[in-house]
Specification:
This protein has 27 helices and 22 strands. By secondary structure, the chain is of the alpha/beta class. The structure holds ligand 26W. The site of ligand 26W has 23 residues, from helix 6.
Amino acid sequence: MRSGTTVADLKQSFLDTLFCTLGRVPSAATPHDLYTALALSIRDRVLKQGVQTLETYHARDVRMVAYLSAEYLPGPHLANNLLNLGIWDQARQAVEEPGCDLDFLRQQEEEPGLGNGGLGRLASCFMDSMATLELPAVGYGLRYEFGIFDQAIRDGWQVEITDKWLRFGNPWEVVRPELTFEVKLGGYTEAWTDEQGRYRVRWIPQHVVQGIAYDTPILGYHVNTCNRMRLWKAEAVESFDFAAFNHGDYYRAVHDKMFSENITKVLYPNDEVIQGKNLRLEQQYFLVTCSLQDMLRVHRLLGRPLEKFHEKWAVQLNDTHPSIAIAELMRLLVDEYLLDWDTAWHVTRHTFAYTNHTLLPEALEKWPVAMLGALLPRHLEIIYEINRRFLGEVRAQFPGDEARVARMSLIDETGERYIRMAHVATVGSHHVNGVARLHSDLLKQTVLRDFAELWPEKFCNVTNGVTPRRFMAVANPPLAQLITRRIGDGWLKNLDELRRLESLADDAAFRQEWREVKLAAKRQLARCIAQHTGVTVDPTSLFDIQAKRIHEYKRQHLNALHILTLYLRLKRDPQADLPARTFIFAGKAAPGYFMAKLIIKLINSIADVVNRDPVVRDRLKVVFFPDFNVKNGQRICPAADLSEQISTAGKEASGTGNMKFALDGALTIGTLDGANIEIREEVGVFHARAKWPTSRLTDAGPMVPDGQPRRDPGVACSRLVRQRGSHLV
Ligand code: 26W
């Protein structure tokens, strides 16, 4: 039976798929064939839930969340789906009989690197959580042919390798070739008055491309709900222009195809800095129009009135990347479905909500008016009209305050004219949230201050969260089993239940088991480090880990300076009372970010010196673990004793790695920034009673006369552990 979950059913499916779908016999099958056969067999079971879910949504006439994100980082699907289906052990046995090892098959899986880091991984965590909470949702995104680059380290320098994640196919997606939408680009507009005397505008495009849907099922944990991530791929309308070809103009015929497919060719590999490139704007518009056209198609298919669109669709904008959606929905409602402006605007501003992920000025998107007007002439007109009406409202509230009007305008006229997308998103949304309490406060006090004064009720905080299924149960099964043995498995769907571990904090047996779990995870990572870097590390030393994108505000270089201080102290006094420590770094630098790449080189150079020095190498090791991604994050997280979260105060909007490391039982050394503040409140604080003036505190500021390190409020390097000093879990 293709959806049975007994060992026999799974084994039969695995072999049938190998024979019938892949045309292979086990003896001649490559590791990738075997992985694909298992993946497709598991996908059958997941899709079965997906079909039933859609039927339920239809029958119940549900309101749907549409999460619009230019980036997703789903991570490997196989193990997560086995956990969600509750058939991990059955699957292991089912492949063992024909001679396969499940962990080996898992290693064959390429993960979809469709994002840069925190913002994209948060999107995937939300998709997992909404499915588990049985919230009807669809995640709309872009199916980049090349995602974030693979990172190699050569002579200590980062080398970017093209991410050919689709080279061996993608067993987790189902293509919907019949589900395509037309996407106009460039050109100009024409206005006229129609026979009913209505002002009308048509958009005559320079190019037309089409979007094709690729669906990936997103199954919730131990529920029947299976939502979908729908990724759009750009293709030429005419895959080949024979007319041009017949005139011998072969290259013009192919050019159109190349231009069209270019739009979803590659992910922009930057984080926290915008690339004001035209292609980036094309990608954003392409994502938005395909998604909105799809939502309107469903809405009309179900016979629903367009005036009620916002009652059936809640669209979340993941940063300003999809914020052109505000203008696009107005265009679709007014130009294509002939709603009057006021009705369309009422629908639009009740449809969207906007999540801000950064305060850094260089990351706040603004598009040159000339560029946006050339690509989206009709949207520029609509943005002007939205702005005219909005500024009228501002002038009514704050008469005479033209400075405020200039500050709030959707158009920045201080120099070259730009469209401020954070303003477009704020004006067109019913709610605006930051991603941690401090960040949401700073958002109202700085970047969006004027808007918070005008619409205080519009602003809220939604602190980030991460899924414990992937980052504890999949990444660290022994820890998950230990916790479940003690408090039951309710914590996997309701993390508050972890509080029930508090009563075990003084239970010597539990702590011993917990330490064994931690040591096993460290041994596992030590093997991985040896494989990937050739460095031998001591699993009984403290694993001090900083894994995140390389960025000056994340201060990997501060961590590096701390290492040098310890090294020099050990050189001066080899008998110094310092616990053996292994520093592990991981993270990619944006290819164009020179200083970040130099920091990677610095870390590797420090590693060369430290790891080679016989005086210290048994007490101090430094490792740069290459190619940090979701798969490697799952390997690194469980092994951390210390989690470095030392951003410059006010710069890390929230952080999500901080939560993953804390959940896997690391002590956090952190700046009072982003979500560190809220983690600190949850797990308690343990101020380091420094036996010696630890270098980090002096780095935080000069020593004060009495020899006590001055506590810079922003950089209180406080270890976050339970009050009783035991490990947090
Ligand atoms: C390509 C331009 C660009 C610019 C900014 C791409 C991505 C961004 C994001 C705003 C950067 C980002 O990922 N921000 C991180 O978002 C995480 C999820 O909310 C937070 O936990 C991090 O603190 C924030 O830095």
